[in-house]
Amino acid sequence: MAFRSFLLAIAGLLSAGIAGAESPAWPTHEGEFVATDFHFASGETLPSLRLHYTTLGSPRRDAGGHVTNAVLVLHGTGGDGHQFLRPQFAEELYGPGQPLDLARYYVILPDGIGHGKSSKPSDGAHARFPAYGYVDMVEAQHRLLVDGLGVDHLRLLMGTSMGCMHGFLWGERYPSFMDALMPLACLPVQIAGRNRMWRRMIIDAIREDPAWKGGDYERQPAGALRTAASLLMIAGSAPLWWQSEWPTRDAADKRVSDYMAGSIPGLDANDLLYQVSASRDYDPSTQLGAITAPVLWINSADDFINPPELGIAEVQAKRLAHGRFLLIPASVATRGHGSHTWAALWKGELVSFLKATEPAAAH
Q1: What is the model's pLDDT at position 362?
Q2: Which of 265, 337, 342, 259 is nearest to 17 (CA)?
Q3: Total number of domains in the chain
Q4: Would you say residue 228 lies in a domain?
Q5: What is the mean pLDDT of each run of 10 residues along the chain (363 residues)?
Q6: Cβ pair 151, 62 in contact under 8 A
Q7: What are the angstrom distances between the C-alpha of 74 and each of 20, 89, 244, 316?
Q8: Which residue from 188, 176, 173, 171 is spatially nearest to 284, judged by alpha carbons?
């Protein structure tokens, strides 16, 4: 689906036209884990919650049978694990001698609740699907690892956008589960201000469109989806890059027309509504001190969603026991919020971080 490709390119919600095709070179394993009797924070339950995942590489176990080389990578809103097979990510990280060399690491790419091939509203429940939040998504990821894949510890947890926010929740809820935590493109505070407002605009556009019919539509609510697509495009904007790529009025107009024509077909209003709404329970700010794992937190200066002028990151980073915050300067090479998936921008930092956090037994 063209719109899903747009979302996946930036780990969800944000930028268009930067992804390219998935690389066919990486040997992957696709699987599904069913979490039975899953209880949501809302009080709702599902007797069977399907969690799809993709893995690369092979697990290594110590003498006690524990996996020692697992890397969990979490996607953004609207994305799925397959986005991390795209060249700008995979070809920078997975090859021989690269930071996440598949000869060394077991990389796990789950599809979050409501995303990809995991259970979601468009499977048939529509607006009767449980109102999942970020806490539910993290709990499902934990169950997938422990009960589904037999992984009880991570060498590294990396997350982009929504996955970045999940990373902070992981660090608080399961502080000893990972050797290292690398959140990319988020802030560890309640979603408020402009960040909440554009999300609320998408939510309202869907719910207030008469064609939505409380979620039981026969045809997708086209007006709502056009509004949502427009907001998503702006949220994923990268001013310097966009000016370079579309430097004239006609080029910019054509880009918008092409984007709209390619983005709206294939989008499901209920799925998007749930995806954008799920952040309502996110606020790790009160428990940041509980994160004991070393943290390398990276944002980019041209991120519409997490603008550096707010000054939030610098304040919150000081509350991390073993944390470092890095802001990538804006340039023609950065991709706005989507910089999190262009690994060439930050992979050198990842190399140093992995070396600094290598377990003593590995030396």
Answers
A1: 58
A2: 259
A3: 1
A4: no
A5: 35 35 74 98 97 98 97 96 97 97 98 98 97 98 98 98 98 98 98 97 97 96 95 95 97 95 88 97 96 98 97 97 97 96 97 95 53
A6: no
A7: 20, 13, 30, 22
A8: 188
Residue with tokens 């390619």: 262
3-state SS class at 271: helix
Retrieve residue 147's tokens: 């009960």
Q: H/E element holding 90?
A: helix 87-93
Q: What is the CATH number of the domain that holds 36?
A: 3.40.50.1820
Tell whether 150 is covered by a domain. Answer: yes
Cβ atoms of residues 321 and 292 within 8 Å? yes
**Residue of 353, 296, 354 whose CA lies nearest to 323:** 296
Which residue range forms the structural domain that includes residue 332?
2-194+277-362
* Burial degree of 152 (CB within 10 A; 0-12, 13-18, 19+): middle
**Is the whole model's pTM more than 0.90, yes or no?**
yes
Give me the residue label for tokens 């930028």. 15
Burial class (CB in 10 A: 0-12, 13-18, 19+), 249: exposed
CA 5, distance to chain mean position in Å, is 14
